[in-house]
Known about the structure:
The structure holds 3 protein chains of 3 kinds.
Chain A: H1 4-28, H2 58-62, H3 78-81, E1 85-90, H4 95-107, E2 112-116, H5 119-122, H6 146-152, E3 162-166, H7 171-185, E4 193-196, H8 200-207, H9 214-231, E5 235-236, E6 238-241, H10 243-247, H11 252-272, H12 277-280, E7 284-290, H13 294-315, H14 321-324, E8 327-332, H15 344-358, E9 363-365, H16 378-393, H17 408-430, H18 434-440, H19 442-459, H20 487-502, H21 505-520, H22 526-534, H23 539-550
Parallel strand pairs in A: 1-2, 1-9, 2-3, 3-4, 4-5, 6-7, 7-8, 8-9
Helix pairs in contact in A: 4-6, 7-22, 11-13, 11-17, 13-15, 13-17, 15-16, 21-22, 21-23
Chain B: E1 7-11, H1 20-31, E2 35-38, H2 45-55, E3 59-64, H3 69-82, E4 89-94, H4 101-106, E5 111-113, H5 119-129
Parallel strand pairs in B: 1-2, 1-3, 3-4, 4-5
Chain C: H1 7-28, H2 32-44, H3 47-56, E1 64-69, H4 76-89, E2 94-100, E3 109-111, E4 126-132, H5 137-153, E5 158-162, H6 168-174, E6 179-184, H7 189-202, E7 205-208, H8 216-228, E8 239-241, H9 250-266, H10 269-299, H11 303-311, H12 317-330
Parallel strand pairs in C: 1-5, 1-6, 2-4, 2-5, 6-7, 7-8
Helix pairs in contact in C: 1-2, 1-3, 2-3, 2-5, 4-9
Amino acid sequence: MFDKEKLRKVTEERKRWESETVPKWIQTKPERQPEFYTISEIPVKRLYTPEDIRDLDYMRDLGFPGEYPFTRGIHATMYRGRIWTMRQFSGFGTAEQTNQRFKYLLKEGETGLSIAFDYPTIMGYDSDHPMARGEVGKCGVAVSSLKDMEILFDGIPLEKVTTSMTINGPTSMILAMYIAVGDKQGVPREKLGGTVQNDMLKEFIAQKLVIFPPRPSVKLVCDVIEFCVKNLPKWNPISISGYHIREAGANAVQELAFTLADGITYVEAMLERGLKVDDFAHRLSFFFASHNNFFEEIAKFRAARRMWAKIMKERFGAKNPRSMWMRMHVQTSGCTLTAQQPLNNIVRVTLQALAAVLGGTQSLHTNSFDEALALPSELAVRVALRTQQIIAYESGVADIIDPLGGSYYVEWLTNEMEERAWEYIHKIEDMGGVIEAIEKGWLQQEIANSAYKYQREVDMKKRIIVGVNEYTTEEHGEVPLLRIDPKVEEEQIARLQKVKRERDNQKVRQILQKLHDEAEKNVNLMPTVIEAVKAYATLGEICDVLREVYGVYKEMIII
Amino acid sequence: MAERKIRVLIAKPGLDSHDRGAKIVARALRDAGMEVIYTGLRQTPEQIVETVIQEDVDVIGLSILSGAHMALFPRIMELLREKGVKDVLVFAGGIIPDEDVPKLKEIGIKEIFGPGTPTDVIVKYVKENAPKRT
Amino acid sequence: MLRKTPLKELENRVKGLIEIEKLIKGILAGEKRSIARAITLIENNGETAQKIISAIYPYTGKAYIIGITGPAGSGKSTLIEKIVKELRKTGKTVGIVAVDPTSPFTGGAFLGDRIRMQNLSLDEGVFIRSMASRNSLGGLAKATKNTVRILDASGKDYIIVETVGAGQLEVDIVKVAHTVIVVLAPGFGDEIQAIKAGLMEIGDIFVINKADRENADRAVIDLLSALELNTHKTWKPPVIKTVALTGEGVNELLKAIEEHKKYLQTRAFDEKRRKKVEAELLEAINQRITDTLIAELKKEGKLEELIRKIMNREVDPYSIAEEILKEKISKK
Lengths: 559, 134, 332
């Protein structure tokens, strides 16, 4: 990319600088550490020059936004055309309470909805299940039947919003409920827009919200993808996630590699079903974290786009450019936020959000400053939303596409992350693929090791966390916390019982039997699940049928 | 006579699936020479207490980030009492608001380690406070 | 010579004896807390351990002991859960001892086998105990044997001893059992090579778990040909395919266990048992003599000097042993 002669001169001068200027300086002012590393243990030099990107080929490695390999962005105008979607993950208590929070956020300027479900819902239990005791509405909204979903979207027209639903095991049921609400509102299914997370591989690897064993879980994932591709053309039937892998302790390279490996696995699973890659690949979407090391995160996002484009084109032979787009949602990293001096978290989130924007995300959630204490209060979530709005409208960074493109460091780091991620992906393939690696416990061990290492660094003060192991204060700052009313559980249970009383129980039994029979064959279950939810079969009832057929999974413990 | 080892149960009550911290603590305690039994996720109070009895542990560490601690911890402490389990140190960690701490201490949870607690602090605490049984 | 024993110490001794009485009664009644406490005392191998074993020994010998071993990830714990479920259906009670290695560097251990069997923890007829190897070859074998005895005396019909099966240590442990089951999973390739030596010899039944995998049949063939080489056995170990996750093959496995049980009862059962008892007696005597002698030497302050002499190459360890024998044992 550079003139050979000029580059040689740079090298010469750089060597001189390193042997003369720098040592003189270091003699009296030593550097803060003997060595510097990113969180993924990539060593970083004090300076990057054209030498570090001498082999960079602009057209091959960067290209133009909206064109292969999409390193600089998947859209030709990026944020000059449309600001990223501001989509705040929310949910708590009853459907009414969450409906209120949705309306509040929409009023305050969020541009997409994102639902957080409570633990019982996520695990396929109704609010009255013994395992649900004490958990109803605590970490998200309780949804046990279509009735709850109807209340959740009361006054919110589904053709006017896009909704992301963080649900995995019970994806079919929750999506079915959303579709049912749309049907009731009279919205044509082709107009429904949104996402279901529906990524079971990362559950086995990191988040552990697993109901059924690996193979049936992947089958259910593919059922949803296939159904949506045929019936809900605007819907993203999967959000292949690295966020949870990162939060469980993986470093940036691992997050990148494992997510792409999961993506490859899903593509292969869909191809095995007989679909062509261009039939479904354009609807795959991704979800990453944005963590503390600013430039590492930006490089990660860029590398991810380029790698996925290559994978789709070269490995899977995709012809449609849209099949090669890596469309991503990013959430700022929850695990980096502290309980001590919570207001500091606003700063962390700002930097992480900025990295996501400079990294070219399509959609963004910013955490609230009370993240380590409770679910977001109205004040905290508003500040989080404002953070995005200030970046979008005041900072000017959204007015240029990929402004860091060409930076010696960022381009070098993007290459470096890509190379290291490929190594991991090849290792996983040598092992026989992601499912093999999960069953061997290899991925989980990598993550546990990274998590432990990170904690040791913090314990030994090799890694500073402001307010926690340095710059601490004794005072306990009071921030107003959101508290979930214990009555929520009672209310939910009462509503559930009412639904069960008022529905046609015979019809429900029939449909559940039908579902049981279909689950034992290799049939796409979505249509029957939709039927079931419309008859007000509950989430738990439907999941129980599948539990019977597929069995229940017990994880392998790796520390 | 063989050396006495401190036996610790690390438990995740309820549906909370965040196990990064629990596993780090388990590993740290193991690296400090203790025998650590980890029950895995989604344990009911009944399962936890049964495990305490059968494994005859000296220490119990409860990890929870879902906000369900005020429903689950009292049940666990009640069961321990009912079953006559004495002489066991119980501590907890996770996301537990400051205002709940006094109530939990009242029911017998000796110490609560919030986010940001250095692992060494937990290890030291367990070493120094584990009951010394013969 | 009468020693003046302080009253407090006497009190404690009496208390201790009463505690032991209670403990033993509890064990025989199948009371969980007593069983658990006794196992801890066994592991710590103090005086009380000895007393407990002496007291319950007459009540042992009724349980049928199954050893289950195999490489990590082969699905042993999941399989055990299924086996136990089936046994429980017939009303049999089960004790499970899950052994994991102690880290030689830190002395600590991570005991995670229980997790796959946690559903059983609330079953009154099942007792699960996790045990760490504690870095003492002989010590673990003794602790495991005695733990099995406690579970036996408490009335368990079956006792399952589970180990990882990666080394000699584990191979020793499963010798405690009547029937030894080796669990493998297809695709373990190199690992099978590595463990072939020990496990091929001691397995009475072999299981290929995760048999729904493509390479399962290949694994069965490989295994059968490896077993061909063991011609000295009169019992031909069957190879059984299972899918522990779904329970497939478990009934077949239970049948094979019953077959082996019958075989043992009609053949060299007593001979095998005699050998085991002899080995344990020798070990017990050995341990006591060594412990006592070393304690005496230490008390006399002689141990360090002897070690020093050996290090200076003044004398070899074996001559020292002879000397000690002459001086301390032959004399009496």
